[in-house]
Fold:
Amino acid sequence: KNEVEQSPQNLTAQEGEFITINCSYSVGISALHWLQQHPGGGIVSLFMLSSGKKKHGRLIATINIQEKHSSLHITASHPRDSAVYICAVGAGNQFYFGTGTSLTVIP
Amino acid sequence: DVKVTQSSRYLVKRTGEKVFLECVQDMDHENMFWYRQDPGLGLRLIYFSYDVKMKEKGDIPEGYSVSREKKERFSLILESASTNQTSMYLCASTNSNNQPQHFGDGTRLSIL
Structure:
């Protein structure tokens, strides 16, 4: 049983498209995180959410605590957005991770 | 700028060898984590530590041990490497599970 489920697993988009990646979780959380991993391995934290919505540039993250669901949106997508996006939740002493969404943006 | 440094980006070892992966953070973080990442499985927690000389098993500790003698350093040890331990290993640190984790660049380990 996975505590964190992401969809889709793979996503290909044309440059300029609006992109949505979804995350559902089954545990009580203190915070939800969206992470980005580029080829080569390094992971960076994009957002940490415990309620509502956050925006950073073309990236928007929302969370619905009652529905245990979060979305990551990318507006006006660009080839440099191509990466794996990972949803993670902090619960108790641990973090739980989704398996990631591999995004490819084609010029 | 905050930094989590893993000692090697790429490492090739032989079956049966004892392998050490080192991780150092310069943020004075209490909490440190070792994960492995495999295609289709995402990040899986091997061990974590909330304090010096303290360690807790994660989801997949078998075949691994860890050492945290100093706050800034968390070492992962493969006691007798096996081919199924070929993977990407990622170290992370944070001050609290309410704060983002900071990740190292990862070590891609191949066991031949």
